[in-house]
Amino acid sequence: MIAESGHYALVLALALALIQSIVPIVGARWRDAALMNVARSTALAQLLFVAASFAALVTLHVTSDFSVANVYENSHSLKPLLYKITGVWGNHEGSMLLWVSILALFGGLVAAFGNNLPLSLRAHVLAVQAWVASAFYLFILITSNPFLRIANPPIEGRDLNPVLQDIGLAVHPPMLYLGYVGFSISFSFAVAALLEGRIDAAWARWVRPWTLMAWIFLTLGIAMGSYWAYYELGWGGWWFWDPVENASLMPWLAGTALLHSALVMEKRNALKVWTVLLSILTFSLSLLGTFLVRSGVLTSVHAFATDPTRGVFILLILFVFIGGSLSLYAWRAPALKQGGLFAPISREGALVLNNLLLTTACATVFIGTLYPLALEVLTGEKISVGAPFFNFTFAPLFVPLLLAVPFGPLLAWKRGDLLGAAQRLMVAGIVALVAMALVFAWTYGGATLAPLAIGLAAFVIMGALCDLAERIALFRIPFSLSLRRARGLPRATWGTAFAHAGLGVALIGIVCETTWNTEYIGSMKPDDVARVAGYQLRLDGLNPRQGPNYREMVAQFTVTRDGEKISVMTPSKRNFTTRGASTTEAALLTRGASQLYISLGDASADGAIAVRIYHKPLVLMIWWGPVLMAFGGLLSLSDRRLRVGAPKPAKAAARALQAAE
Amino acid sequence: MTLWFVFALMTVAAIFAVLWPLSRRGRADSGGSEVVVYRDQLAEIDRDMAAGIIGAAEADAARIEISRRLLAAADQSGREEPVQGSLSLRRTAAIVALVGLPVIASSFYLALGSPRLGDFPLAERSRVADANQPLANLVAQVEAHLEKNPTDGRGWTVLAPVLSRLGRYDDAVRAYRNAITYAGDSADRRADLGEALMGSAGGVVTADAKAEFERAVALNGDDAKANYFLGLAAEQDGRKADAAALWQKMLAKGPSDAPWRPLVQAALVRVGGSVPGGVSAPALPDGAVAAAQDMSEADRGTMIKGMVDRLATRLKTNGDDVEGWLRLVRAYLVMGERDKAMSARADARQAVANDADRLRQLNEGLKTLGLDG
Question: A15 vs B14: CB contact, 8 Å cut-off?
Answer without folding.
Answer: yes
